[in-house]
Amino acid sequence: MNMDHTTVTSGVTQTDKRRRRTTELMIAAAGILLSLLLIVVGRTYGDYFYVASYVVLQFVLLATAWNVLGGYSGYVNFGSAGFFAVGCYTTILLGKLFDAPLAVCVPAAGIVAGLIGLGTGYLSLRLRGVFFSIATLALAVMLQTLIVNWSYVGGARGVYVLRPDTSGPFDSYVQLLAIVMCLMATAAVIVAVVVERSWIGFGLAALRDDETAAEAAGVPSLRLKLIATTLSGFLMGVAGAPFPYYITYVDPASAFSLAIAINTIAMPLIGGTATWWGPVVGALLLGITQQVLTVTISSAANLLIVGVLLVIFVAVAPNGIVGLVRKFRESRR
Amino acid sequence: MSEFILSAKGITKRFGGFTALKGVDFEMAPGERVGLIGPNGSGKSTFVNCLAGALTPDEGSIVFRGDDITTLPSWKRARAGIARSFQIPRPFKGLTVRQNIEVPLLFIPRENAPKADEVDRILASIGLLEKADASPKSLSQVELRKLELGRALAAHPRLLIADEAMAGLSDGEVVEIVELLNRLNESGIAIIMIEHIMKAVLAFSERVIVIVAGEKIADGEPHEVMKHPEVERAYLGQ
Amino acid sequence: MYVTWDLMANAIVAGILLGGFYAAVAVGVTIAFGMLDIVNIAHPAVMMIGAFLAYLALNTFGIDPMITMVILAGVGLAIGPFLYRGYHALIEKRGDESLQGLAFFFGILFIVEIGLVMTFGVDYRALELSYLSKTFELGAVSIPARMLIPFVVAMIMCGLCYAYLFYTFTGRTILAVAQDVEAVRLIGADPQRSKSVAFSIAIATGLVAGVLLILIQPVEPSIGREFIGRAFAVCVLGGIASITGTVTAAMILGVAETLTASLIGPSWSPAISFGLLLLTLAFRPSGIFGR
Known about the structure:
The structure holds three protein chains of three kinds.
Chain A: H1 14-45, H2 47-73, H3 80-98, H4 102-123, H5 130-148, E1 159-160, H6 173-196, H7 199-209, H8 211-216, H9 221-240, H10 243-247, E2 249-250, H11 252-255, H12 258-271, H13 277-294, H14 299-316, H15 320-332
Antiparallel strand pairs in A: 1-2
Helix pairs in contact in A: 1-2, 1-6, 2-6, 2-9, 2-12, 2-13, 3-4, 3-5, 3-9, 4-9, 7-9, 12-13, 12-14, 12-15, 13-14
Chain B: E1 6-15, E2 18-28, E3 33-37, H1 44-52, E4 59-64, E5 67-68, H2 74-80, E6 82-85, H3 97-107, H4 118-125, H5 141-154, E7 159-163, H6 171-186, E8 190-194, H7 198-204, E9 207-212, E10 215-220, H8 222-227, H9 229-236
Parallel strand pairs in B: 3-8, 3-9, 6-7, 7-8
Antiparallel strand pairs in B: 1-2, 1-4, 4-5, 9-10
Helix pairs in contact in B: 3-4, 3-5, 4-5
Chain C: H1 5-35, H2 43-61, H3 65-92, H4 98-120, E1 135-138, E2 141-144, H5 145-167, H6 169-179, H7 181-186, H8 191-216, H9 226-237, H10 243-263, H11 269-283
Antiparallel strand pairs in C: 1-2
Helix pairs in contact in C: 1-5, 1-8, 1-9, 1-10, 2-3, 2-4, 2-8, 3-8, 5-6, 5-8, 6-8, 9-10, 9-11, 10-11
């Protein structure tokens, strides 16, 4: 199928392509700059800075990944923690079996989680709306049960992971992890931009509004949904891959964590789901706030704040921060 | 290729124990204008859903322009040249009016690439050029109906199924929509009009078919069909 | 593993008793989600509130859980209309996005869970009552009171819901709302009111189910989430909007879980409900009794 018509539609006109390239380049530049900044600034603040940055950037990646499916197609994935954990345990398994380096584990984790995503995509054939969401939740619990009962990867008790020696230009392994996460998050955001502004994003937007009408207008909805679920799953798996080295002790409770389940949904919804920058804004804002607040209040209180914000935004500002900014701009015009 | 653009044979559709369509045969010539009438719940909508691909018939076959499309999903039928409008307008609410038209333009490949001004031409032909950048949420009922037809038109169809495109409109607005359908028909598109407004059906159609209780009970020249005793009973008896 | 008929019989009886309790959990979902289209995935959170209130009532005021559950049912019916009004004003009225409703209840679910964690901590809490530790012997089958009492209460509660829905005017309008909102207007009832009443019943059953839960087992805030899958599995399996279907499906799930627990191992039983749910959703979305 050749969808490269360049003459029609605001979604894919020539000027839009040019604009997209500019955005992509700008995000790439921002990501690389941020990595360099991490190195420079981190030297003065020490490892805690990298630990915090890693978590925030991991949420940028997760929120972006969730939004590729949830925001663009309207299919709500409640099982993000499951996909994340699949990535995480792929690393553990490959490490145990072959001593595989992180560079191998990351793509492998993405592929495994992506395949599970593909499976949920086929589920979407029969299940729309709430049923799809409940199925993803069910999937996460099934995966967790599987891991709890799989003693080779630690089972319910968990497993310790040894960090490899730090080598090359890096001062510490945490620094390396933070930079890896920064580059992966940057890549994910670029992927989101490409999807959003291509025929895929345009078709997903149509089927998000009305799947039957979209099909009648020639949109191959199953194919698009499969692309979205696979891609979203892949990115979530990738996000989980370095986690064992970050946390060094992994048990089902930390891999299938509440914090990931809530934040991954709350961040895009609070930031705004219609565009790529909504989840980024949401993740940066909530992620940094949580890191700052963790010093003063408990992590439970932190999550409570996220939950309350989620409910408030959904009820009062359903288009998130992006929506609020747009409204503000329009009112000033 | 046969002389028919569409040929449906023995279309049967069951929902659980209920048979909504019982072996309906239907043929249509290129560029023909057919009215489809029948009381509520008679199976009209099921029939057009089987033609457009929203439903797959349990028995029977549908051949469109020489290809068997019986089991094709609706997006492939749309690409093959069957467009439809919905009984209750179903715009893409998150997109602008212009983008609504662009969806089929982008997703339905055709022999010659559409011209750059095609969206504008379609918008002009349905009278929505000024509202191109508006949200469908701001459109009136008749404008939504026109948007439905515009979107169907952008699919570059050989056959258009207009499912109650005039329900709930004023007399003047009905005339507007009929004129629009006439213009589309003049450009060579065959049209099936499903309608309750009998005046519109009689004014528009060259041929009328009647479906009652899942069976086709009449098929022919409009005024002949209206004299059919069963049609009289089904309609005037109401 | 050595399997005897006694073991099987015990597992099946335990499963039916457990299933009765699952019916109590799911009946609220069947009403709110199946009949009213309210995607209340926070229903298990309501249940957890009920469980911890029963704990507080017994340990602070010395109120027996049997009395607590009656009070909570009344409280649920009383505050339900306000909760529904809030939900309607914030989410339902807007009408277009099911995504928003889901995210809303998802947020509520976690707010309740974390609120409970911050108030009660993550330790397991149980009710110490002498009558709960009794066991009745029926041949080789033993029936513990802590399972029997919830089963009986659950069956009474489901029976009351069924009777209310089928034998009262408001109840029938609720069933009608589930089919067609317009039709309800035509018979001169206010669909809004029907929904409000139904939602209140759902909340009340949720609170009572919570009391039953803490009779059965020790609780901590996060176990509520396990019941999302169970409740929705039962609801879907039972045909989404049917009380009798819900009760039957709950028994099936209960037996499937206890059999799994005694034949394979208890750590696998959470996967049973979700597996059953996934299979039902994938192959028979209309439920076991669906057409």
